[in-house]
Design a protein that fits this description.
There is one protein chain. Helices cover 60% and strands 10% of the residues. It has 117 residues and is mostly helical. Strands 1-2 form a two-stranded antiparallel ribbon. A hairpin with a 2-residue loop joins β1 and β2. α1 crosses α2.
């Protein structure tokens, strides 16, 4: 689309075709050092973001590993205690009698006194 500009010269009308103006009248080029610094800065920021994310994920994994190791140690301790209790119930007569009395059993010909309130 062509645009005509109208001017008034000494009472006469003259028409001139307008030319597209160049927004940058001076021939300014972006310095090469500016482009290099910009690319280096963006690359550094990208690497920094990736490393920070990896560091936080690693820290979370180490914390979870420590928590699970503590839990495993506690479960192993509980397991050893239960195995000792099972062994005592299989072979130790005092332990067997104590557990039987907790359940309300008694020896033959033994009188059990039950308290009444």
């Amino acid at each position: 689309m062509k645009v005509a500009t109208t001017y008034l010269d000494n009472g006469t009308v003259s028409r001139r075709k307008s030319r597209a103006r160049v927004s940058n009248t001076r021939n300014e080029a972006i310095p090469q050092w500016f482009i290099f610094v910009t690319v280096a800065l963006l690359s550094s920021l990208l690497c920094l973001a990736i490393n920070i994310r990896a560091y936080s994920e690693t820290r979370d994994e180490v914390q979870l590993n420590t928590q699970l190791s503590t839990e495993i140690g506690q479960l192993n301790t509980d397991n050893v205690l239960l195995q000792q209790e099972i062994q005592g119930l299989k072979s130790d007569e005092n332990t067997i009698e104590r557990e039987a009395r907790k359940l309300g059993f008694s020896r033959p010909n033994e009188t059990i006194f039950v308290p009444t309130n």
